[in-house]
Amino acid sequence: MTDLLSLSRAARLTGVSRGTLQKRIRHGEIETFEGQVRVSDLLRLYPSVSLEHSGLLKQVERIKANAVPRDRDPDHPLPSPEVLLSRLHALSDALAEQVNRANALQGLLDQLRVQLTQTIPERATRERLLGWLDAECAAIAEQPEAEARRQLLAKDNFLRLIAASVKVIPSGHEFFVEGSEPILNAAVRAGLRMNYGCSNGQCGACKARVISGEVWKVRDHDYVLSARERQMGYMLACSNTAVTDLVLEAAEAHSTADLPHQEIRARIRKLERQTDDLMLVQVQLPRTQTLRFIAGQSVRLRLNNAAEAECPIASCPCNGRTLHFYVRHRQDAFSDTLWQHAQIRDAVLVKGPYGDFVLREGHAAPAVFIACGDGIAPIKSLIEHAVSIDSVASLHLYWYKPASEDWLTSWCRALQDALDNFAFTLLTDADPTGVLARIQADLPEPRAACYYLAGMAGPIRPIEQVLRTLELEDDQLKVAELSSGSGDAAADECR
Ligand code: FES
């Protein structure tokens, strides 16, 4: 292990978010060296880091709990013996290199002692220099941070055994591959927008080039890479796992325009009433065809009687197989069908994705989310994505909701309890100027934040006008106006 760690590894080792570390970097508390931070800086800021206090053991337990025979669910197994052996081999190589260097340095010290003894004739000077050298060597071994440093190195090595880190170029995005899961699954879970199609080795869309590191094929694939491609290091991200830390050259979608239109036959997985007229609908997509979308987008759902509506996706792309929607009963064909006839496992056609209500990419500025009524649905997707990519400095959610409704409040509270950088304010009687006053009281620099506002046109337009008085740049304010298929009743109530 070197003295430098990537930001992702540093965040895992210390148990804080990447956003928190980035904030400390911006404040000059940690220096970075080509995107990496020093072990000594981490120990200075987080002196109590230890293996016992880390979440690593819990993480191993979680991976173990998820582990099932690989032919039943290959998503989150422990590393296979082959992968584990390769990782141990890589760690042994790194250890051998460090031991070699330590031996060479020890040899240099011994030579220095001989040189000092032979070239300094005056005994007092000679002994003073030799004494100084011995004292310095002893001091290095007894540095107060030596034990903490040893523990941090042990923890990092342990982490490298259970998860490999992947850096994608040219974007610089980073994520971890746990166990022997396919690289593509880990990338999607981390919120990356890597290209893919079939997810099972048939289309070649997930082709990526390994710049450094070692991969392991976890499934056979029908798509054939040419000899030239293999020679250049190309592999299929859906069919390979990372054995060691990787640098990958891979294409990613930069905007909603880069995503293809998709039509996927899926099934209703769950229908769960949240209130008298609000239903949580979960739609399960086939394992071989997940939906590529960006958090905050919508799809059109077509039920088996041809009733159809556009609905914002309320879940994160990190779980592209199960989509969540909140649907109001509005006496239209679509919601009538869901309330009166729909059953679990009914077929549903998913078409899309649509819309560009998505996070502003590459900005760590605080994000302010303002949801009016059912506008919480696309905002929930944005927040879950922001949490999974862990690169937004702070998240502030303001939600107008009738006091009589309790849905998703526990989700908001749970996030607030779990995250240092998430704040939630429930508003039941605020007006647009009241919202702005609240934001100005909560944020030291409201003009520097990015704003995401969603709901029905009636309540959100006055808020939009008030936010525009902050003289925000165009891409600092994103607005999603819900169509009539997604719950204007609650939105009207919160006006
Ligand atoms: S996504 Fe189709 S081959 Fe990997």
Can you offer a commentary on this structure?
The longest helix is centred in the N-terminal third of the chain and has 39 residues, at 81-119. The chain has 15 helices and 21 strands. The protein has helices at residues 7-14, 18-26, 39-45, 56-66, 81-119, 123-141, 146-162, 183-189, 227-231, 333-340, 376-389, 409-418, 432-442, 457-468, 488-493; strands at residues 4-6, 32-33, 36-38, 163-169, 174-178, 207-212, 215-217, 234-236, 240-242, 246-249, 262-275, 278-284, 298-303, 308-312, 322-328, 347-354, 367-372, 395-400, 422-427, 450-455, 477-481. Strand 4 and strand 5 form a beta hairpin. With 495 residues, the chain is α+β, with helices and mostly antiparallel strands. The protein binds FE2/S2 (inorganic) cluster. FE2/S2 (inorganic) cluster binds at residues 196-199, 201-206, 223, 236, 238. FE2/S2 (inorganic) cluster is lined by residues 196-199, 201-206, 223, 236, 238.
Summarize this structure as a short list of keywords or feature phrases.
Ubiquitin-like (UB roll), 4 domains, alpha+beta, Elongation Factor Tu (Ef-tu), domain 3, binds FE2/S2 (inorganic) cluster
Give me the secondary-structure category.
alpha+beta
Mean pLDDT: 84
Q: What's the gyration radius in Å?
A: 27 Å
Q: Provide a count of the helices.
A: 15
- List the quaternary state of the chains: single chain
